[in-house]
């Protein structure tokens, strides 16, 4: 057979379907940066049928399914759903039609809880159909085989748990078309069996299923029909029973493959071990021992979630361990392993790749010292070495300077492997190295790992695919609940022996005591991991500082001082609430300070003692309109002109400050005394405006946590791409968020106007940095996705309290800035350390 020939095995359906095809995609084409990802692809998906899509990484499978689910728009071709042509398909429209997709990389929102992820992705009626929201959500998760607490933050879930959450979301929709893109890659056998049972049940009810996989065994077990893509084109389609594996492989790679696994190493009894671990124990595993000779590959087997990943992280020097690890007779500790071992993580997006950097930069980042020429890096040497390594792995990319996030999942995994090889490690630790990798690339990875081992570098591989370990490894440790059940060698390494050892295990988890203790305090731990812990900390700091100041000066709690402090809080508080919205979506608004000052200047022309009520009302309306327009400009510059949030809002910052001085070169235009009196009215020592601020904080907090408006904000900031896949209109969300930020700045400007009583163009600028400080103190992440309005209010109170404290203690203005800087520093350290510790607390044994 000629390697370039196209193999087309097409078998006509024997029975004409009674109902129209669920999905027909005709002549679909899609270009990325001028490169064709799909060319004239046509496929028909019938109801009550599992249609498998096969192909190498980069063949166009995921792109085709992104078009089918509305995530990507085709450049040509047409889509018909149940006989009706679809003009423009978006994720939201796809959900309405009954299309659900499980993405290869789960479209989950890491900064939100499990329950909130369900609420964002699913229509309200799906979650309100049962006796209670919690009961319905728990049942949906159980249907997919996922057992986690609804209030667990998704960033703390394992890779497998995130996939099961994605599957639960899809199954909950009871879709007419279910698209599964590599759904079993990180799952253990029990979860795979449960998924297949759910798929068969859906098919029996008439659901059409598209199943993308690299595993031919799964195609045989589940699919009715198969279509193969190669280089963005359809290479053949057939009933599964009418085509052989060899014919499928020939269509997939365009040539006949030799054996998938390279020959195993033949050791001599005289060879000394070059790698050994003895009594290794750590979080999630205990007392692991094994030794290997040069050329041998060690495999780690067992049901997913039984300590394999924790063991791999320890070998890579990422987690603490006791016991010894020796390479070539030298014992290495965690710090040394971190420097000398090359780690290929199972979650390449979270731990393996720098998604905003290029392919070249990702591959070279661990080996920069190799490319030095004197004190500088040699770009020529870097390009040559990286190109050679990427070429040996057949990485498919438009260029080495392409952003790595634009590559297919399998090609991203090859980049991770390239980086490991370029770092010239003493040990290679590969956790699920072929997850989401096609048949041809998988054989290449096996070959490379075998060559690395043959060169004398120890290789340890963990995989949920027992067949992979059987074909690749010379020794296999079978783990269960953190213990090594058995060490298999030579001919004893078989899929049956590994599965038998795992399922017959009676060992107890090494973390039974820890898990039991954790369950007693799970509520407290979730609170500490949640968004409100910083607010509680701020309450304590405010109370302690207030107590200290009162002990120094009894006038601190006088009615006058309470009124003065809370009045100052109102202006800052409203502006900071708006700033919180911008930060929640992963942005920032530097223009809020100048905007507040500019609005005061506008008001100074209309809200005067000699102006009529109509003119005053007109001035207020004009201030609102200007604020809204500024919000639209900020949002549009970011979303449509592709400015960064800092660049866009800094541009507007400068423009607004210039307009303020253009309108008034010096303070003028005194504000109507009646208006300032109304704004400054009080109930006892408490300003009415502060009560309004508290009410606004509670309302916005409720909307943030309990309404779709808040979920959309946090989802956008948590992971924009996942939010878009969940049907959120990102452009509209961002623009409206900046409008809301500016409208809160308007309310803050009203408070500021009453306080200064005159149109001063120099006022307001300082509120930009102060508002950001208040928001950060309140626990809102500068990266977006998490935070609270309550924390922002408390942060505003603390900042004004610090300002007030310097006056009561007779300190200079320098101390104001010093204290504010220390507060920000302490908050940043406390919150970042807390989040890092929380991420380390993984639910290792949730999928038993």
TrEMBL record:
It comes from the Bacteria. GO terms for cellular component: plasma membrane. It comes from Cryobacterium zhongshanensis. Residues 23-256, 268-506 form the ABC transporter domain. Its main location: membrane. The chain crosses the membrane at residues 532-550, 562-581, 613-633, 640-663, 683-704, 734-758, 764-783, 790-811, 817-834. Gene3D superfamilies: P-loop containing nucleotide triphosphate hydrolases. It is a multi-pass membrane protein. GO terms for molecular function: ATP binding; ATP hydrolysis activity; transmembrane transporter activity. Keywords: ATP-binding, Cell membrane, Membrane, Nucleotide-binding, Repeat, Transmembrane, Transmembrane helix, Transport. SMART domains: AAA. Pfam families: ABC_tran, BPD_transp_2. It is found in: Cell membrane. InterPro entries: AAA+_ATPase (IPR003593), ABC_carbohydrate_import_ATPase (IPR050107), ABC_transp_permease (IPR001851), ABC_transporter-like_ATP-bd (IPR003439), ABC_transporter-like_CS (IPR017871), P-loop_NTPase (IPR027417). This is ATP-binding cassette domain-containing protein.
